[in-house]
Predict the 3D structure of the following.
Amino acid sequence: LDDFSCLWNRKGYDCMTRQYLTQNVYEAFQQRMHFIFTEFDNIFVSFSGGKDSGLLLNLTLDFQKKYYPSKPIGVFHQDFEAQYTVTTEYVERTFQRLSQDPMVELYWVCLPMAARTCFSSYQMYWYPWDDTKQELWVRPMPQHPYVIHLQNNPITTYQYRMHQEDLAKQFGRWYRLSHGKQKTVCLLGIRADESLQRYSGILNKKYGYREQCWISKQFKDVWCASPLYDWSNRDVWVAISRFGYEYNRLYDLYYQAGL
C-alpha cells in the first residue's frame, strides 16, 4: 500500500463498452469532478461512514479547496441507529472536523424511516429512530446542531416513516428546493466491481446525463453521480494510504478477523 504506483498504473475504463482508457482512475476522477463542478450548481456527498464514501468525501473536498474554494459542498449522512460503534465514532470525528469548515454544509439525518429487515418472520420493516419506541433505541440520539430529527427537521419533502431509499432521494429533491432550485447532484461512492448488480446498474443507465453513464436522473434537475465507478477495492485503499485520509477503523477489525 505504500507504493502508489499500482493506482497510477491501473487504467480507468469507458463504462459503456468497458474499453480501457489511457488515463488512470485518479486522473479520470479529477476529470469527472471538473465536469461535475462545471455542470451542476449544487453538490452534496452521500456519506455512509464506509470506506468508499469516506474516500469520495475527502477527494471531493480536496478538489473543491484546490479548484472551487468558494463553492459550498453539502454532506448527507443517513443514520440507521443500529450500527457498529466504531462507525459512529468515525462519523462523529468526520462531522466535528468538517463543522469548522465554512464551505461545508452538514446534514446528519436521524428521522424515522422504514428499513428492510431479515430478523423477523412477521414484519418486513423496522424503523430506526422510531419516536414511539425511544426506550428501545440502540443508542441515544446524537446531540449536534446539524443533526436532523423530528423536532429539528427542515426537510419539507420528508414523510413520516417513509422508505429509507425514498428518504435519501427526497433529501436531494429538498436540497435543490432549498438551494435556489438549481441543478443539483448527489455524489455516491458506488463502484461497479462491488457486484454484478452495481456493474449492470452503471452499464444500463436509462437516464444518463450528457452521455455519462455514471450520472443518472432522479427528479427534475436532481441527479446522482458515481465518479469512483471504475475504481477497484485496491485503488480505494491505496488512495486512502497515499493521501493519509482518516477512515473507518472497522475495516481494521474486519482484517484482523480474517475478512
